[in-house]
Amino acid sequence: MRFHKYHALGNDYIVLDPRDFPAWSPAPTVEQIRVVCHRNFGVGSDGILWGPLPSQQSEFGLRIFNPDGSEAEKSGNGLRIFSRFLWDQQLVKHPNFSVETPGGHVQVAIKDGGQLLTIAMGSVSFDSTKIPVTGAPREVLNEKITILDREFTYNAATIGNPHCVIPLPEISPELAHKYGPHLETHPNFPRKTNVQFLRVLDRANIQIEIWERGAGYTLASGSSSSASAAVAHRLGLVDRSVTVHMPGGQIGIEIGDNVSISMTGTVNKVAEGTMHPELFAVRV
Questions:
Q1: Fewest beta carbons within 10 Å, which of 62, 110, 136, 218?
Q2: In a domain, 137, yes or no
Q3: What is the value of pTM for the model shown?
Q4: CA-to-CA distance for 153 and 166, rounded, in angstroms?
């Protein structure tokens, strides 16, 4: 049972090609996902990329699973990693192609022999009915939410998956660990949400700390970078070209018309190998 492991700024994923796992069709079970992703009992990762899959509108299809077994609609880092995998396996001959996820279709451009990738992520929406966020239809900007002992001002957005962005003068990993889990599962967000604590550095730079839905504290995230930059721009805090600083590194975001997002970042290959059947003898 072969696996391929990559990381994008410390956000690591395992790519599993369905052709190598005929018995797992049409997808791995929650139990299989949990043990593969487990840092002690499995290979260890922030998620599983299951593909390539058939797609009617794009060259490739992809499903993305979180370590808890839930499915993500879209992942910017996951898309960069999956695209690098396709390039490494020579499943694509041209550096420009498209990938379909449950959160929409994206355009990929591979650069520097796969070391650097640009993804056209689609457009960000602040519409509560699309994200979704409970309550009357509206743009969810500068609203109040109380978590534990603190009231925050938050903004909600979607780029195919839901995000809660909280601008603050100071942010830290401790802040994300304390409040992130409660924001992720807050009743305001019927499908849960990814959480970003945002600090604006200047008109071209922002810093974020991330609590990812279904994965927890994360060193980097492409969709979180996209949503955070879009929110900062919508609030008038940054211009259209933004560098997003995260614990794992930096991602470049370009904001176009209709809040369309182009994301550029690196991918590094970690390992490839074979999972032993004994791995699945343990339930986690």
A1: 136
A2: no
A3: 0.95
A4: 6
